[in-house]
Write a structure and sequence with these properties.
By secondary structure, the chain is mainly alpha-helical. The chain has a domain at about 65-195: Tetracycline Repressor, domain 2, CATH 1.10.357.10. It has 9 helices and no strands.
């Protein structure tokens, strides 16, 4: 256990970011319901008052973790589609990246999409969420221009695609997919999802 530093001793480094990082680790280990400001302070080695000073309360801390997670998520989704010419392949790359992100950043993923536990009115959270969704929205719009559900409302189709990817990520993390699929790597899971995101050629009724 890390001992708390004496009150009044200057913390070397960005304490707020250190506490966000510690909170993300704690979220991955114990979940949002069991995370406490006291535990985060202990992990960083500062006084119990430090998290409250920087975040106000637990909701404020969880919101800060969610904001950071969404920013990382946006960068990860954007990087996944760089250099891909085919919109549908870009969509599948986004889905694969979604699953990979949940593996790489489990603490952030734990809280990013749980509005009951965070301050959804926080301007930084709303901006970060909009930017993340826009990445998927743009890819979906490009797919529509190539013949995938061209008459659907783009936002509604993007929401449905988001729900598909998020549901697959959650079921995979919880172990439920293992009983239904022989392989549950991100590549294998997204290969299965391709059956729902396959563009139909003009005049084609079904696959």
């Amino acid at each position: 256990m890390t001992a708390a530093r004496n009150v009044g001793v200057h913390y070397q480094g960005d304490l707020r970011q250190e506490m966000i990082a510690a909170a993300a680790v704690a979220l991955a280990e114990v979940g949002a319901e069991h995370l406490s400001l006291r535990d985060v302070a202990r992990r960083v080695g500062v006084s119990h008052a430090a998290p409250a000073h920087h975040f106000g309360d637990k909701t404020g801390m969880l919101t800060a973790v969610a904001v950071q997670g969404l920013e990382l998520f946006t960068d990860y989704l954007s990087a996944a589609v760089e250099g891909i010419d085919s919109p549908l392949e870009a969509l599948h790359a986004n889905g694969r990246a979604y699953l990979e992100f949940s593996d790489l950043h489990p603490g952030h993923f734990e809280i990013m999409f749980r509005p009951a536990l965070i301050n959804v009115g926080d301007p930084e959270f709303r901006s970060a969420g909009d930017k993340a969704f826009q990445v998927l929205h743009d890819v979906v719009a490009a797919c529509q221009r190539q013949g995938w559900e061209p008459d659907a409302d783009t936002t509604e189709l993007a929401v449905s695609t988001w729900a598909l990817f998020h549901g697959l990520a959650l079921l995979r993390r919880q172990g439920s997919l293992a009983s239904r699929l022989p392989h549950t790597s991100p590549d294998a899971v997204i290969d299965v999802a391709r059956t729902l995101t396959r563009a139909k050629r003009p005049g084609q009724v079904g696959d």
